[in-house]
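Quick one: Alkaline/neutral invertase from Hevea brasiliensis, structure tokens please.
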Amino acid sequence: MDGTKEMGLRNVSSTCSISDMDDFDLSRLLDKPRLNIERKRSFDERSLSELSIGFTRGGLDNYESTYSPGGRSGFDTPASSTRNSFEPHPMVADAWEALRRSIVYFRGQPVGTIAAIDHASEEVLNYDQVFVRDFFPSALAFLMNGEPEIVKNFLLKTLHLQGWEKRIDRFKLGEGAMPASFKVLHDPIRKTDTLIADFGESAIGRVAPVDSGFWWIILLRAYTKSTGDLSLAETSECQKGMRLILSLCLSEGFDTFPTLLCADGCSMIDRRMGIYGYPIEIQALFFMSLRCALSMLKHDTEGKEFIERIVKRLHALRYHMRSYFWLDFQQLNDIYRYKTEEYSHTAVNKFNVIPDSIPDWVFDFMPTRGGYFIGNVSPARMDFRWFALGNCVAILSSLATPEQSMAIMDLIESRWEELVGEMPLKIAYPAIESHEWRIVTGCDPKNTRWSYHNGGSWPVLLWMLTAACIKTGRPQIARRAIDLAETRLLKDSWPEYYDGKVGRFIGKQARKYQTWSIAGYLVAKMMLEDPSHLGMISLEEDKQMKPVIKRSTSWTC
Ligand code: GLC
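--- reply ---
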């Protein structure tokens, strides 16, 4: 056992003040001997029933008593897999090397990973920066490999950046806003390092990244969960950082919905793609970060106030999402038959969606068994597109009920050709074309049909799919997806995204050596190898919440 492993455990006190009421409880693991010998069994040898973490009785408990807690694989890279009984895929070593090359240092300390190191690309744009969202899978890879230091440094550096005054022209941004990205400027003569950050004021389109703060909170929990080091989240700086992020999204206004109103381009999809309003990508991250914050906020005077607000918001948000964003065969049929112009509380068609606005493709796409959270819901507008990140995060955060989670996996299986094709995973489905593309994207040449954010395939999403598969007890789906990625990723030099209806072509303007494609692959591999890592990024169904009304066939099958 190496030093890093032990370090993580030493800081854990049994009387922690951070309550982790709703999910994998790390403290329970601490008195149990860690049987690393178990890791010698290959993942494939384990029975499927063992893999149904969260959904089958005892699944999780089995893991927790058998495996080391998430984050303590502790093996030196790339030897991680060599200690197992099966031969590691040759890509794993290459991926670790590439990931290490992407590390960015500030005054000698590792603080993050650069978005892409593509020497062949003519324009660097901002790909030489550390993006908060892009670092997330890198952080998981390091945590899973027992290297939490870089993650801690990153959390503290970005927290420091949050404290900066942020302006776009003469307008001051909210205090809690987290940067989309930052860069370390090295002065070789003066031998100094300085930081610059982008909160949206330099970003194409000048949009603030709503997702950054959410990823930050979710990562703080993953770090805490993985290392057992509660002291970081408990610092007054981290507590304040969380509260500032939360006050941005819990403030009262003219909203009639508990969902968070957003500008287009405020997430991973960072250019105009018609996701303004209440995009699923943000709502799922919002929900997850509220739950993560709830488990880490102290019950002191300031913390208590936020805890109360979070609990109320979660209650409403969960209901709203599960009821109005959920689409399956039955629900589609109901919307198809909706009456319009209903007034008063008795309205069935609450948002006055006109059935004629349902796009033709949904009728073919919707399987009899299966369902998903649609892209957006607002007055008279439903965006029926499928978004991978939002649906995977809905599973991981338990925004989806266990039945809904199963239905999402059913949909992925039955629409494999469309959603996975030759390269996992389509960021959104289907693509927007012709006139609609002109109006919705503003004629964006990067987001042409089946490219980039407009129906492109993003290897980084593999880790989210894998995590969702493990959580729902369907690892064979992840295995299939990883096999596909392994036929291409290394050979193609780890592209940022693929183009085409089935994702066969390296993306038009895709960077090579895109760090999150590399890290996403490693995380997917490590999770399949040791599913107990899932605990870092998964939250169990809140037992106090009653399941929502059953409405459709796919919820029950
Ligand atoms: C692109 C992606 C964005 C990512 C950035 C850096 O702009 O759309 O999600 O963070 O590249 O990789």
